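To close the section, here is one more complete example, presented without commentary so you can practise reading it yourself. The ligand is copper (II) ion.
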Amino acid sequence: MKRRLTRRELIKYGMLGLGSITLGSGAYRLLSQGASSARADEDLPRTPIKFTPFTQALPVPPPKQGVTTPFTDGRHCVLPSVSGLTAPKFYTVQLRPVTQELIPGFPQTVVWGYDGMYPGPTFRVNHNEPAIVRFTNNITGVNTIVHNHGGHTSSESDGSDSVFPSQVTGPGQSKDFCYGNIAPINPATHNQETSDFASTQWYHDHMMDITGRGVYMGLAGFYLLKDELEAGLIANHTLPADAYDIPLVFQDRVFDANAQLVYNPGANEFGGWLGDVFLMNGKAQPFFHVEPRKYRFRLLNGSNARWYELTLSNGQSMLQIGKDSWLLPFGVNRSSIRFGLAERADVIIDFSKFPVSPNSVVYLNNILQQNDGRGPGGTSRPGTSLLKFIVDLPLNTNVPDATITANAAGDQTVTLRPNIAISPTEIVRTRNFEFDDKDGWSINERRFDPNRNDATPQSNTAERWVLENDGGDWQHPIHIHLEAHQVQKINGRTPPVYQSFKSDTTQLGPDGTAEVFIKFRTFAPGRWVFHCHNLEHEDNAMMAAFQVIP
Ligand SMILES: [Cu+2]
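Output:
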């Protein structure tokens, strides 16, 4: 499929008479002059730098610390009014350019970082302890807005400038975002539905039209939540302790000869920008020392357009305990896990069978092939090694190993978070959304209009949404804000068990369909968005807005 660039796209990306761009020093630098015509993907820039992989350690983003003095200047956003909340905790985050060593031996890459680091610091928050986060933008010439992906958040603090423009955080500005850290409220009982409480969210830039650039430059981090149930699973050693709980975001990037990030999404007609260097937590192909025990990894595909299918090089399974933001009811063994954009898998990897030795090595491999933004092709083993685990740390016997194992075949006894399914009897209406390519990227043949409501569900009702890919062999991972959705059918079939509970992002394969149930439990009326999470598709109008009406 070929797309023709709209004039808006040409203007937006400066392709009318300008050249390709490199992102350095926080501003665009023109590399070449002269008209740039759209090119086939095989002609896109490739990183000219050679480096030796697995020579530097995996960075683990530090936990975000709160501030002790509350903000008192009356700019607070709105927290949910629900009983049982503690006083809010206050955090300040500064967005700024910084140089960081992404490629071993090349220390000067300019990135944009929350708190001046990429990835940003990891929030670890507790249920019923609201957070008020003041984001200050010190990136010259760039508007930002933060979205807490997977969060049950008010419209005001959800980070969609398109539906709440007053939260745009321009250069030199500060804006407050309120995160209740609660589960959706059951309207019948007025209690939180703790089966819907999230575990693994991530925060990232969400500025309309330029989200791809912001995330590519480094504006992403983890937001991990813990409630009484999950704390209990950790305390009784079902799940690994926090010290063995590692957030892991994988992203692909293109660099120029000076190790600066290259981003030119118009070069392939906004089909999706692929990189050829693989970063794990912001480091190209690092290693990670582990003990012979079970570790928990919060795997996140934070790439702009690349899909992944991850395996372990020794053929060992990973035990998936969570999909997107939510824990599953029980662990599911996976020999490989496929990730569309923004998807997460919460997994346990068991290193306990390895002898403690520098020779005990296992790789996390990506076996998925992808040549352009339309989506993945086939798989090829062994694939590309992204991360090298070395089981050479002595076992700390003061911390018991986690006990979780996969449920025996067919045994779906709840050992993690109970799931309360949305029942077909709760569905009040069906809506259909076709993801297509009319005049760029579109939904139901309409490009995104922030002033238009594409759906107006009623508060505290449930609906059936049929998401349909009308884009031929283009693939689209669809993210719906505000609430989890429950996948009923994928391409007309019952989804695999790990996909049958809660998701916030669902893959639409070639000509694929997904039928999902979703509730709209809001603690304040407002508008939210849903969109393709291929960031170049999202930035080119494959987005829609819904208003939850009282
Ligand atoms: Cu898409």
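Once you have examined the tokens, check your reading against these statements. Confidence is low (pLDDT under 50) at residues 1-40. The longest strand covers residues 89-100.
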